[in-house]
Amino acid sequence: MDTQRLKDKILQLAIQGKLVEQDKNDEPASELLQRIKEERDKLIKEKKIRKPKKLPPIEEDEKPFEIPEGWEWVRLGEVVNILGNKKEKGLKLPYLDVEFLRGKDTNNFKDTGMLSKAGDILILVDGQNSGELFEVKEIGYVGSTLRKLHISKELYIQYIVKNIEFNQKIYVDNKTGSAIPHLNRNLFNNTLIPLPPPAEQKRIVEKVDELFALIDELDSNKKDLLEVINLTRNQVLQEAIQGKLVEQNPEDEPASVLIQRIKEERDKLVREGKIRKPKKLPPIKEEEKPFAIPEGWEWVRLGEVGAIVGGGTPKTSVKEYWEGGTIPWLTPADLSNYTDKYISRGKRNITPLGLKESSAQLMPKGTVLFSSRAPIGYTVISQNEICTNQGFKSCIPFIINMNEYLYYYLIYSAKLINENASGTTFKEVSGTEVSKLILPLPPLAEQKRIVEKVDMIMEMLDKLEKELIINI
């Protein structure tokens, strides 16, 4: 749900007279305008406000839509004045700069400035967001980029505020000045405002506030539900790798036998020259094991069940490494907002020569790709032969049927890996560190049952999330 667009639509209906019913007994806006004029003349005579420049009459072709009977079109400058920056001193008060007014506790005090009191409406007149409004919550001195608005007491002030907010994007997009942008005061003063009777102004604001509160509540509930879905995903993965998601079957071949078969397959690949002989990994100490695992499972290091492979980037200045390339080459950026379990290629391919002349390595179908920097934690399985840049430390399982279990294990472990990563410019995890990750290894048959159960739950959660995003 695009809450801001919905709010904008409500404001549009409000200022067109379509949000609340008109009451024929309301005093017409024409009489209100006469009182506003009398009030303004009095304030000018008392020198409380400056005499404004005369604004041009409103032509018929300027009016963007029809308004109800009893309403009047006015220019904003006829009912609102931007006041000067008259400074006062003598009291030590909070400094009401933009950061403070946006909710940041700046803990900044001054003893001189333009005094503003609770209830005042301020407008930003300098900077990129010129035209933004703020309602003052406490007495203080106003920042130099802000000015007070004088809105006629004959008006329901919040109705005018909502009109200005509705037009705020126009003011932001049409600032004056180059080095320092300023509010286009001519545009501001000439803005057309549809003016209802005073009583209807109040009804409109009350209805708008009611609807906005409902939208905010729905949006808050939606965010809470989305957070619950995300927490549920993490909980499912946690139960999966702790052996609590599916039942164990005593008939399954134990993980100890699977480990022996993994070693045999690894040694075979080394003999055939398909992988390098891996470095010996340290034994797992009891204090490293974060939880108890079911009978038939074993603790292993990731590097014991798969080859950890890095990547590389061919020189971009050598066109022979890239042009006409057919070998899929992946970067972490290719996985940004990517949600599928499998991937076949990224945005770019490299040539066989580019592969040969770089540290990129061609990995087989079924490799679990894991981004090791910028950011850490993108995880996906290759649908075909593929290579990556140096932003990956991928795992080629010695028994390829283990890849989906390892995929979910790495997704779950990404947060912990990121917390323990090093780096100043950006965090990074090395191949050695990935190899040393400890993995709770179930029997192969149980891995299959775990993956099927996780797939089913994740699909259900994905559908629920999509429904929330689209329909609420």
From TrEMBL:
A Pfam match: Methylase_S
All residue ranges annotated as the Type I restriction modification DNA specificity domain in the record: 68-227, 294-470
Keywords for this protein: DNA-binding, Restriction system
Any single GO BP term: DNA restriction-modification system
Keyword Heme belongs to the record: no
GO MF terms, alphabetically ordered: DNA binding
Similarity section: Belongs to the type-I restriction system S methylase family.
Subunit structure: The methyltransferase is composed of M and S polypeptides.
PANTHER family in UniProt: TYPE I RESTRICTION ENZYME ECOKI SPECIFICITY SUBUNIT, TYPE-1 RESTRICTION ENZYME ECOKI SPECIFICITY PROTEIN
Name this protein carries in UniProt: Type I restriction enzyme, S subunit
Annotated organism of origin: Garciella nitratireducens DSM 15102
Top-level taxonomy: Bacteria, Bacillati, Bacillota, Clostridia, Eubacteriales
